[in-house]
Amino acid sequence: MRSLRKRVSPRRHNNGEGTGLMAQVIIDTGNHVAGFACRAARAQVVAAYPITPQSPVVEQIADLVERGKMDATYIRVESEHSAMAACIGAAASGARTFTATSAHGLALMHEMLHWASASRLPIVMPVVNRAMGPPWNVWADFSDSLSQRDTGWIQFYCASNQEIFDTIIQAYKLCEDKRVFLPAMICFEGYLLSHTSMPVKIPNQKDIDDFLPPYNPPWLLDVENPITHGNLIYPDWYMEFRYFMQEAMENAKKLIPEIDREYGRKFGFEYGGHMERYHCEDADIILLTMGTMGSEAKVAVDRLREKGLKVGTARLRVFRPFPKEEIRNLARNSRMLTIVDRQNSYGMEGPLFTEVKASLYGREENPLTVGFIAGLGGRDVTFMDLETMINQSLKWLKAGRVEKEVQWIGLRK
Amino acid sequence: MVTLKELSKEEYFLPGNATCAGCGASVAIRLAFKALGPRTVFVVPACCTSVIQSAFPHTAFAVPCLNIAFEAAAAAASGVVAAYEQRGVKDVTVLAWAGDGGTADIGIQALSGAAERGTNFIYVMYDNESYMNTGIQRSGSTPYGAWTTTTPTGKREHKKDVPLIMAAHGIPYVATTCSSYPLDLVLKLRKAKEMKGTRYIQILAPCSPGWRFPTEKTIEIGRLAVQTGMWALFEIECGKFKLTSSSVALVDKTKRKPVEEYLQMQGRFANLTNADIVEIQKWIDEKWENYKKLQLDV
């Protein structure tokens, strides 16, 4: 939030001087903003099932559709599995498609997540991050979306409500690019963003329409031109289809910063492509986070910089495709990378920590790396916690050796 | 009425398909396509039809077809319907086509949801009374006493009554038919095509490898299923129950052939005891008592 306040400057609250936009600034929750973005993107079919903390997204859309404020068909399905199946049917029949879910809903969708990406359908889906049970927990962590890492979905992680809106619009642009044609999750943390009101600038619809032209699929279920989609395929062909998906992800990696810049030029909000950097240029230690922890990290960095410490932070915005090259760039200029995971891979470590190390492997000289697990099941991660992690890292950096590769932060004694 | 001569000469189920010899389901597909015509979108979950359509880069279907996961046919079809609605295309029939496993068992949630929402589509369960595509495992639609690979000594439970479950949803049209009764099948699909809302049709489709009968007996087996009352041909139109075709006369118990005639032709019933046969006959008679009541209720 703090970083957002800086970004939504008074200059942007006027009629969009210099941008030619009639901007409207609203103050609303992440969930409602996701619903507005769904309308702004002119989604034609929405199929969704309620789950805490995502429910207000679908309530918002139902309200917009029933009051005639949004021209879409809303299918009130009986499960998340059916939600994704219906999205697949709709997208395959030529409609721009939207759904949203959380935690167990996402897990129930798992099979259909594969089906959507392998069908190469550009479905966009907010995932309101929530911890997996048992025990039941409705609060934020990334255990839901990160367990879907290998489903072939692009994954964005947001740090503000403005970013939720902007990323949903950007995601349709990206996913519907003929070089990509993959679905995307727009992940944002339950309650921290989903139920927190923030100012958000909603651009003029005409400008969004210019940025995001109507859905024009390369294939669809068309009675004039009948095709069979998804039938049996033998081993002599299957691998090629999967290779095409890998290629599409690589293409997405190139397009994400381009689309972000284009969006920034047009609407005034830009997020650094794959990664938002803060004081990274001269930093000895870079704290790497995802989601709202990225905003807290800026506060921590500001406070430590006041003490003369050369620290910086980077917030990973895209987990798939994973920006290996960007991680290597961070490593080039720093002596230590401190990685914070809001999720754990049981029997290993935080998934972000693993991916970062894998990205660095094979370089001649690497910074030290250390991983922290924090904020599971909605436990607060404040700038003070992040300062503790940085201070700990500094000690090990001075010693030239990391004593404990992974540490869980804030555990009860 | 419709006669066989009147049926479209056009084939939408093409040569080169990968059916087993004597496949009842493939007869049903061919007839269903003829009844519905080319402006049909086909949605197929995991089932025999996933194989019947043949493998990439070929297809045996001359209508567009979306393959989808096992339990998801009705949900995916809901999406197709919504997209066509949004695009303003009105004269296209959306047909979900699933086996008994994909309908009575794993897919019943999505089907019930779609029916409750009044989704404007036709859902067909072609009923070969087992998971045939995976190699003859028991489904909720397998009859009492039948051998399957997961009921090696015979199933101990009766067949799930999906048509009446669907009728309880209050949908405008529920019908049962059989691949051995082409006119009945075509009439019901044509009638369904002209209606709006959720329409459910269950087609008994004898399966030679699964039921263990010679491949040339498919039509005969289907007829015997009907003649013994083991399977009834009926429709429930806007709540009104009506027996059709050869089943009309069979309300009179004496007109029904003894069930042994049907059972003895199939290897899957080879191990039935006399008590089992009595149990099956009793089940049939009770079913028909209910049909009689349903007919009178109108």
Give your account of this protein's structure:
The complex is a heterodimer of chains A (413) and B (298). By secondary structure, chain A is α/β, with parallel strands linked by helices. Chain A folds into two domains: 266 residues, Rossmann fold (3-Layer(aba) Sandwich); 133 residues, Rossmann fold. In chain A, 42% of the residues lie in helices and 17% in strands. A six-stranded mixed β-sheet of chain A has the order 10-12-11-14-15-16, sandwiched between helices. In chain A, strands 5-7-6-13 form a four-stranded mixed β-sheet. The N terminus of chain A is likely disordered. By secondary structure, chain B is an alpha/beta fold. In chain B, strands 2-1-3-4-6-5-7-8 form an eight-stranded mixed β-sheet, sandwiched between helices. The radius of gyration of chain B is 18 Å and the shape is globular. The interface between A and B is large, with 42 and 45 residues.
Explain the layout of strands and helices:
The complex is a heterodimer of chains A (413) and B (298).
Chain A: H1 2-7, H2 10-13, E1 24-29, H3 30-40, E2 45-47, H4 55-66, E3 73-75, H5 80-92, E4 97-98, H6 103-118, E5 124-129, H7 143-146, E6 154-157, H8 161-175, E7 184-189, E8 197-202, H9 205-211, E9 228-229, H10 235-267, E10 275-278, E11 285-290, H11 293-306, E12 311-316, E13 318-320, H12 324-333, E14 336-341, H13 351-360, E15 368-373, H14 383-399, E16 406-408
Parallel strand pairs in A: 2-3, 2-4, 5-7, 6-7, 11-12, 11-14, 14-15, 15-16
Antiparallel strand pairs in A: 1-8, 6-13, 10-12
Chain B: H1 24-36, E1 40-44, H2 48-52, E2 65-67, H3 73-86, E3 93-99, H4 100-105, H5 108-116, E4 121-127, H6 162-167, E5 173-178, H7 182-194, E6 198-204, H8 208-211, H9 218-227, E7 234-237, E8 240-243, H10 260-263, H11 274-297
Parallel strand pairs in B: 1-2, 1-3, 3-4, 4-6, 5-6
Antiparallel strand pairs in B: 5-7, 7-8
Helix pairs in contact in B: 1-7, 3-5
